[in-house]
């Protein structure tokens, strides 16, 4: 992914108001992000830890930003591990969060949402490349597919979620 500017990021959001996009805080390490290792930019808002954001280049080169929130649902302790629905990385239960995105447009203003289980730190690209390792009891599951195939799968999964948000 190519480095993005503050303005590019804020103007990309499809499911929040311009005021919400202007108020969101960018990642604390924004100046040091490893852009060459990112397939999309994902972060938990440092000013609002129950909010997260994803910005992804679209097929036509445009940017698509989605704002998400952590719903007020408590997890049961019976869940030992979970898998991110974007990058398919297995984590201990605390390493995956349910994030909910308001739908774009009128449907979102009416309160309609769609959810997805994702890496709690939204570092899918780094997990795919082995630059960050998940915390998982009992060892890691090694896939036989290569990094390029994992990237393609993750982007297809993110595209599917984005299509559900934008309708």
Please give a handful of descriptors for the protein shown.
three-stranded antiparallel beta sheet, alpha+beta, single chain, 167 residues, two-stranded antiparallel sheet
Describe the structure.
There is one protein chain. The protein is 24% helix and 23% strand. The protein has 5 helices and 7 strands. The chain has helices at residues 6-10, 18-23, 106-109, 124-128, 147-166, and strands at 41-44, 51-57, 63-69, 81-83, 90-92, 96-102, 113-119. The model has no long low-confidence stretch (mean pLDDT 90).
Short structural summary:
This protein is α+β, with helices and mostly antiparallel strands. Helices cover 24% and strands 23% of the residues. The protein is built from 5 helices and 7 strands; from the N terminus they run ααββββββαβαα.
Helices, strands, pairings?
Blueprint: H1 6-10, H2 18-23, E1 41-44, E2 51-57, E3 63-69, E4 81-83, E5 90-92, E6 96-102, H3 106-109, E7 113-119, H4 124-128, H5 147-166
Antiparallel strand pairs: 1-2, 2-3, 4-5, 6-7
- Strand order of the biggest β-sheet: 1-2-3
Number of spatially distinct domains: 1
Number of helices: 5
Mean pLDDT: 90
Order of helices and strands: HHEEEEEEHEHH
Count of β-strands? 7
Distance between the termini: 25 Å
- Overall spatial form: globular
């Amino acid at each position: 992914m190519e480095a993005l500017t503050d303005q590019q990021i804020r103007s990309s959001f499809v499911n929040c108001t311009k005021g919400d996009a202007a108020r969101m805080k960018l990642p604390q390490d924004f100046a040091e992000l490893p852009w060459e290792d990112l397939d999309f930019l994902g972060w938990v808002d440092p000013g609002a830890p129950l909010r997260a954001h994803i910005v992804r280049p679209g097929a036509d080169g445009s940017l698509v930003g989605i704002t998400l929130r952590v719903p007020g649902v408590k997890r049961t302790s019976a869940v030992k591990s979970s898998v991110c629905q974007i990058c398919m990385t297995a984590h201990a239960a605390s390493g995956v969060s349910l994030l909910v995105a308001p739908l774009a447009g009128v449907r979102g203003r009416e309160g309609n949402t769609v959810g997805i289980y994702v890496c709690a730190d939204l570092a899918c690209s780094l997990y795919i490349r082995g630059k960050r390792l998940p915390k998982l009891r009992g060892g890691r599951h090694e896939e036989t597919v290569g990094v390029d195939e994992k990237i393609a799968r993750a982007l297809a999964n993110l595209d599917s979620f984005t299509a559900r948000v934008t309708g």
